[in-house]
UniProtKB/TrEMBL annotation:
<dbReference type="InterPro" id="IPR029026">
    <property type="entry name" value="tRNA_m1G_MTases_N"/>
</dbReference>
<comment type="subunit">
    <text>Homodimer.</text>
</comment>
<dbReference type="GO" id="GO:0052906">
    <property type="term" value="F:tRNA (guanine(37)-N1)-methyltransferase activity"/>
</dbReference>
<dbReference type="InterPro" id="IPR029028">
    <property type="entry name" value="Alpha/beta_knot_MTases"/>
</dbReference>
<keyword id="KW-0808">Transferase</keyword>
<keyword id="KW-0489">Methyltransferase</keyword>
<keyword id="KW-0819">tRNA processing</keyword>
<dbReference type="Pfam" id="PF01746">
    <property type="entry name" value="tRNA_m1G_MT"/>
</dbReference>
<comment type="similarity">
    <text>Belongs to the RNA methyltransferase TrmD family.</text>
</comment>
<protein>
    <recommendedName>
        <fullName>tRNA (guanine-N(1)-)-methyltransferase</fullName>
        <ecNumber>2.1.1.228</ecNumber>
    </recommendedName>
</protein>
<feature type="binding site">
    <location>
        <begin position="133"/>
        <end position="138"/>
    </location>
    <ligand>
        <name>S-adenosyl-L-methionine</name>
    </ligand>
</feature>
<dbReference type="InterPro" id="IPR023148">
    <property type="entry name" value="tRNA_m1G_MeTrfase_C_sf"/>
</dbReference>
<keyword id="KW-0963">Cytoplasm</keyword>
<feature type="domain" description="tRNA methyltransferase TRMD/TRM10-type">
    <location>
        <begin position="1"/>
        <end position="225"/>
    </location>
</feature>
<dbReference type="GO" id="GO:0002939">
    <property type="term" value="P:tRNA N1-guanine methylation"/>
</dbReference>
<keyword id="KW-0949">S-adenosyl-L-methionine</keyword>
<dbReference type="InterPro" id="IPR002649">
    <property type="entry name" value="tRNA_m1G_MeTrfase_TrmD"/>
</dbReference>
């Protein structure tokens, strides 16, 4: 997987290049990250890459020409068929589906805005997709790009130690994850649910499915709307709701 990043702050990415799953994937040649700094393509010796916004208003905007040269530099390295993504609050919400799509595309160039953003004509001319990591405003696209790189890397075969952990991810089956427990068996007077200690895998699977369904119903009911639950899932969810009702009435 080849990732290109256009940013005026490449040093911000040190954190994911030096530690964790992304660093391991890079060392195992599962992913490469190539940076391009628009300042290196600025026309003046002050390396100006931003200007005032036409029509007035606060703040500065990143100019199209240095971004274009920066993009062409990366496309020469990664290939013209790279998916060009601008990360901004105006984009569609990034999620696991988009994340997996990137892995299949195998080449992506992430454009990190700064200031008020970038010239719209660059977006119209060169950007394939605009993605947002959430409805809040960051000071730059770098953190959003690191979020995307981290998420995508998890889906690269071999990047995560235990192959099956991606399959059991949150959202993998459209549901929130079930609760997890580890040693000590009793913590703060709270014991691990017995069901998890009696080794009956069928019952453990049912309990986990019930918890995932119940949590999703409680915390993100909108996720259930676009899910066709099986009869068994419907039964498990109604059991959860019933048990919860009894719990609340105790
Ligand atoms: C953002 C987001 C985001 C907007 C102006 C960078 C900032 C500044 N990117 N998801 N939310 N970007 O806030 O992706 O240029």
């Amino acid at each position: 997987m080849n990732i290109g990043v256009i940013t005026i702050f490449p040093e911000m990415f040190e954190s994911i290049l030096k530690s964790g799953i992304v660093a391991k994937a890079i060392n195992n040649n599962l992913v490469s990250i190539t940076f391009s700094n628009p300042r290196d393509f600025a026309e003046d010796n002050r390396k100006t890459i931003d200007e005032k916004v036409f029509g007035g208003g606060p703040g500065m905007l990143m100019m199209a020409p240095p971004l274009e040269k920066s993009l062409k530099f990366l496309k020469k390295k990664l290939g013209d068929d790279s998916l060009v993504v601008y990360v901004s609050p105006q984009g569609k919400k990034f999620n696991n589906v988009l994340s997996k799509k990137v892995v299949n595309n195998n080449k992506i160039i992430l454009i990190c805005g700064r200031y008020e953003g970038i010239d719209e004509r660059f977006i119209e001319t060169f950007v394939d997709e605009e993605w947002s990591i959430g409805d809040y405003v960051l000071t730059g696209g770098e953190l959003a790009s690191m979020v995307i790189i981290d998420s995508v890397t998890r889906f690269i075969p071999g990047a995560l130690g235990d192959k099956c952990s991606v399959e059991e991810d949150s959202f993998e089956n459209g549901l929130l994850d079930y609760p997890h427990y580890t040693k000590p068996r009793v913590y703060n007077g709270k014991a691990v649910p017995d069901i998890l200690l009696n080794g009956n895998h069928e019952k453990i699977l049912d309990w986990r499915q019930k918890q995932s369904l119940g949590r999703t119903w409680l915390r993100r009911p909108e996720l259930l709307e676009n899910l066709a639950l099986t009869d068994k899932q419907e039964k498990l969810l109604s059991e959860f709701i019933e048990e919860r009702k009894n719990l609340m009435n105790e």
